[in-house]
Automatic annotation (TrEMBL):
PROSITE patterns: WD_REPEATS_1 (PS00678), WD_REPEATS_2 (PS50082), WD_REPEATS_REGION (PS50294)
Taxonomic source organism: Lasius niger
Top-level taxon: Eukaryota
Name used for this protein in its record: Poc1 centriolar protein a-like isoform x2 protein
A Gene Ontology term for the protein's cellular component: centriole
Protein family (similarity comment): Belongs to the WD repeat POC1 family.
GO biological process, alphabetically ordered: cilium assembly
InterPro entries noted in UniProt: WD40/YVTN_repeat-like_dom_sf (IPR015943), WD40_PAC1 (IPR020472), WD40_repeat_CS (IPR019775), WD40_repeat_dom_sf (IPR036322), WD40_rpt (IPR001680), WDR55/POC1 (IPR050505)
Positions in coiled-coil regions: 419-446
Gene3D superfamilies: YVTN repeat-like/Quinoprotein amine dehydrogenase
Keywords assigned: Coiled coil, Repeat, WD repeat
Lineage, highest ranks first: Eukaryota, Metazoa, Ecdysozoa, Arthropoda, Hexapoda
CDD domains the record matches: WD40 (cd00200)
């Protein structure tokens, strides 16, 4: 297979966990990568210098999620032991913890400004905390089953959550109210995330598909049946034109949201791929799985091609329209909002961590671990842009209001037939567009001569 400078490439391989990897997060400056695992530990890998990884131990049960603060100075982890722990990622492994929920905590994320922390749990609740002093702010209740994931919007004004009750909910942080609910028909979402524009929400579904919902219309925007196993996680590229997917079929895929199709399939894991993440600039991404491995890849596909005109998934006018609608929504809420500023910032939290009697003895931090052996593996990148698969991969830009969907979908089999019919129509249109683009290229070359 001929490769190009725009194809993703495998960079590094890490192995140190004793059980499956559950979550990954790059340092904001891409100098470190933190991974969490079912083995109850965190590993902080150094990417820019030849230092051994740090292993942090303090949780009493599996760690299910981990993330860096926007400043990169602290890390938050969520565990099955019902606690959230705040770490200073240094060799001593200092940390403080607090009981966040009455059941396993599955998701944790810092707000864009780094002042708040969002958690989601099997106790069916989503909670918002102040990072400093670990102070509880408010709870978001409405799900009727385990909440798998909860995320901030890039502007920090909305939340999105998914649950085993087969719903995806969008919340207004100021009022604490649910403003939109999307109902999944065949299977629940395992992971949700906002598009960088804040106008679209993406979901990874256990029924092997990826869905994008348009918050402006409240309808399905794109649908991809790109995997053969459940999709465990998705991540939008920071520029918003690509999405990364991780699946139990042992593959990672790159989807082009502008063309509405998968463009790369990445192989390298020996089991389920459970976690993925992009670096803040989008130049690198990482994947982790049940095989205990962490693989680092270079994106390349996000490089600007000189012959192509820049395009966007959400046009500037559409985004402005969404922002205007969003401002109206928040205008009413802002009237009753007290302008309260938290006096303690993250620097004071770090100072507090230093002053408190923190758990940093040998039982909680093993310091540096043995240098990772360079086991020879052969990750594979498959370019699928020019492969006409027999599988129907996607529906692009299909706007189907949910009330209409529920009206005509009486069973999963009927829904699948409708999806397949739409796939055929879209594939036909896609082929036509390709032919027109080729003719246009020929004409342009003729005019230049």
């Amino acid at each position: 297979m001929v490769t190009t400078i725009y194809d993703p490439t495998f960079e590094r391989h890490f192995k140190g966990h004793k059980d499956g990897v559950t979550a990954l997060c790059f340092h904001p400056n891409t100098i470190q990568l933190v991974s969490s695992s079912l083995d109850k530990t965190l590993l902080v890998w150094h990417l820019t210098k030849s230092e051994r990884a740090y292993r942090f131990i303090a949780h009493k049960d599996s760690i299910l999620d981990v993330c860096y603060a926007p400043s990169g100075e602290i890390i938050a982890s969520a565990s099955k032991d019902r606690s959230v722990r705040i770490w200073v990622p240094k060799v001593t492994g200092q940390s403080i913890d607090f009981k966040a929920h009455s059941s396993a905590v599955r998701s944790v994320q810092f707000s864009p400004d780094g002042e708040k922390l969002l958690t989601a749990s099997d106790d069916k609740n989503i909670k918002l905390w102040m990072v400093c002093q670990s102070r509880f702010l408010m709870s978001f209740g409405g799900h009727t089953n385990w909440v798998r994931c909860a995320k901030f919007s890039p502007d920090g004004r909305l939340l999105v959550s998914c649950s085993d009750d087969k719903t995806i909910k969008v919340w207004d942080i100021i009022s604490g109210q649910c403003i939109k609910t999307f109902n999944e028909i065949t299977g629940p979402a395992a992971y949700v995330e906002f598009h960088p524009s804040s106008a679209v929400v993406g979901s990874a579904n256990v029924d092997a598909c990826i869905k994008l919902y348009d918050l402006r219309t409240g309808s399905l925007y794109q649908h991809y049946a790109a995997h053969k196993g459940s999709v465990n996680m998705i991540k939008f590229h920071p520029k918003g034109n690509f999405i990364l997917t991780a699946s139990s079929d042992s593959t990672v895929k790159v989807l082009d949201l502008l063309e509405g199709r998968p463009i790369y399939t990445l192989k390298g894991h020996a089991g389920n791929v459970t976690s993925i993440t992009f670096s803040e600039d989008g130049d690198f991404f990482a994947s982790g799985g049940t095989d205990r491995q962490v693989l680092i890849w270079k994106s390349n596909f996000c490089k600007d091609k000189p012959s192509k005109i820049p395009r966007q998934l959400i046009s500037s006018s559409s985004k402005q329209e969404f922002d205007n609608m969003d401002e109206k929504l928040f205008a009413n809420n802002d009237k009753g909002k007290d302008d309260v500023r938290e006096e303690h910032d993250q620097e004071e939290l770090l100072q507090t961590l230093e002053e408190l009697d923190l758990e940093s003895n040998g039982n909680h931090c093993k310091g540096s671990i043995a240098k990772i052996p360079r086991k020879k593996i052969e990750p594979e990148v498959i370019d699928t842009k020019n492969i006409k698969s027999l599988e129907r991969h996607h529906i692009a830009n299909v706007l189907i209001p949910q009330d209409q969907t529920l009206a005509y979908v009486h069973s999963s089999s009927q829904f699948i037939k409708a999806v397949e019919a739409l796939c055929d129509q879209v594939q036909s249109l896609h082929d036509t567009v390709n032919i027109l683009e080729q003719r246009l290229t020929v004409l342009e070359e003729a005019n230049r001569k």
